[in-house]
Predict the 3D structure of the following.
Amino acid sequence: MKTALLKELQQAREQKRQLVLATNLTTGFQKILYPFESEDTSDLYEAARTALRTDKPATIELEEGPVFLNIFNPPLRLFIVGAVHIAQALVPMAANADYEVTVIDPRRSFGSAFRFPNVALDNRWPDEAMADLQPDRRSAIVTLTHDAKLDDPALQHALRSDAFYVGALGSGRTHAKRQQRLRSAGFSDEDFARIHGPIGLDIGAKSPAEIAISIMAEITAVLRGKAAS
């Protein structure tokens, strides 16, 4: 690999940009692609986008020969708003699935190192935390507090982001009230449709651990393009 290309690759990875290193297997020519930052709809770019979405390198046949697409995805991130019992069960599941997990809760009696050892804790208000953490298309966001003062600001930031998953705990009635508040804040029904609520797959979950399983399963389904339509 040429030095200039290697430097670009290192810099882009530090910036957590999604990229693909395309290598022509016949000529050896290499090029870095930023598929989600381009409007190019060619077969090469579409294949690169698919490779990034599925987290799988691929080879595509083009007129100039086979091209190997080596993917460089930033780490997956999960932002959990609400340091509640469900969060305590969800954190280790997400960590084992290779997510960088951050628990956000300004209530220090909830968001404490005693309750969440070895976990990144953010005791700022969700809107302040989200503005700084800047969720992207490799991010999932879940709100678990049942408190509109905490959940709503987080959801507003989530809907303005490229987060691939946004979920909110609450009953159907709670979700309907949430929709009214978000509509009053200027969000559309299309925006609201991005929220998975009530959160998690419908597996009849009752306990915090079971609900955490349903949430992690739904996040995975959405990430891998297997969510029910």
Summary: The helical segments are 3-14, 43-54, 85-96, 126-133, 148-159, 172-184, 189-192, 208-223. Residues 3-72 form one domain. The CA atoms of residues 108 and 200 lie 26 Å apart.
